[in-house]
């Protein structure tokens, strides 16, 4: 998978060189390319923003530097294997982080983990001139995305979140694929609580059933813990889970 990140703070993405994603990059499972948006602005101050048309507070990102940066990414993109059999290569997915976007969930991450080429365009200020999005639709599969109902100063931290959630699903990135199936949200429920040795720590015992060696009972206990937790902490997820189960039964 190729990922392009365009920002006025490309250093923000240095954290992606650490830990599992860093390793995935070194093993060539994912190629992450960073671009400085200001490199595509050619006025004296390399400015990328201007005042909002119609008035109002703050500044708006000009569309031209973004279009030039995105065109640069399009010319750099690898020749897909599909070209050989004459089928049109899939358009890259352009993810524009915005609190006004579609909610990014584990399902979104799973879907995007299958893509060949993702481009992230995190804005600063009040956002990007909307005409850029109209223009980009012709070249990209456009996905405005929010990571939750709160406001960030810019899209960069949201990009780090999304890239991490997506790339860990690429085969080979996580050493033990079984851990992906068992974690929170994999089945629409929260994860069960986990414990390690010693069996008694500072006077607190691990649940006895986990020491029983009875794997069927342990599985049932963990499943019940998932239900309990989800009902209590995330009634919204629980309601959806109940509906999905009823559908599967009919
Ligand atoms: Cl993706 N961007 C910004 N700026 N704020 C957000 C967000 C994204 N998701 C939630 N809040």
UniProtKB/TrEMBL annotation:
Assigned keywords, A-Z: Cytoplasm, Methyltransferase, S-adenosyl-L-methionine, Transferase, tRNA processing
Family note: Belongs to the RNA methyltransferase TrmD family.
EC number(s) per entry: 2.1.1.228
Protein name according to UniProt: tRNA (guanine-N(1)-)-methyltransferase
Cell location: Cytoplasm
Domain of life according to the entry: Bacteria
Catalytic reaction equation(s): guanosine(37) in tRNA + S-adenosyl-L-methionine = N(1)-methylguanosine(37) in tRNA + S-adenosyl-L-homocysteine + H(+)
Lineage: Bacteria, Bacillati, Actinomycetota, Actinomycetes, Micrococcales
Keyword Ion transport annotated: no
Self-association state and partner proteins as the record states: Homodimer.
């Amino acid at each position: 998978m190729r990922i392009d990140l365009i920002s006025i703070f490309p250093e923000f993405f240095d954290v992606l060189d650490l830990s599992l994603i860093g390793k995935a990059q070194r093993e060539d499972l994912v190629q992450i390319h960073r671009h400085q948006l200001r490199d595509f602005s050619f006025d004296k101050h390399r400015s990328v923003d201007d005042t909002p048309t119609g008035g109002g507070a703050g500044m708006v990102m000009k569309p031209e530097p973004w279009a030039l940066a995105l065109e640069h990414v399009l010319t750099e993109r690898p020749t897909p294997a599909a070209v050989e059999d004459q089928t049109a290569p899939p358009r890259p997915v352009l993810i524009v982080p915005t609190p006004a976007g579609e909610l990014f969930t584990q399902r979104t991450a799973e879907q995007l983990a299958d893509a060949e080429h993702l481009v992230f365009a995190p804005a600063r200020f009040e956002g990007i001139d909307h005409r850029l999005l109209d223009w980009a639709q012709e070249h990209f599969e456009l996905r405005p995305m929010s990571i939750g109902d709160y406001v960030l100063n810019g899209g960069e931290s949201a990009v780090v979140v999304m890239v991490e959630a997506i790339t860990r699903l690429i085969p080979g990135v996580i050493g033990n694929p079984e851990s992906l199936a068992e974690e929170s949200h994999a089945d629409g429920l929260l994860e069960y609580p986990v414990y390690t040795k010693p069996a008694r720590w500072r006077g607190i015992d691990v649940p006895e059933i986990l020491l029983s060696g009875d794997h069927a009972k342990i599985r049932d206990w963990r499943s019940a813990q998932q239900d309990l937790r989800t009902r209590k902490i995330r009634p919204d997820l629980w309601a959806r889970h109940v509906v999905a189960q009823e559908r599967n039964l009919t």
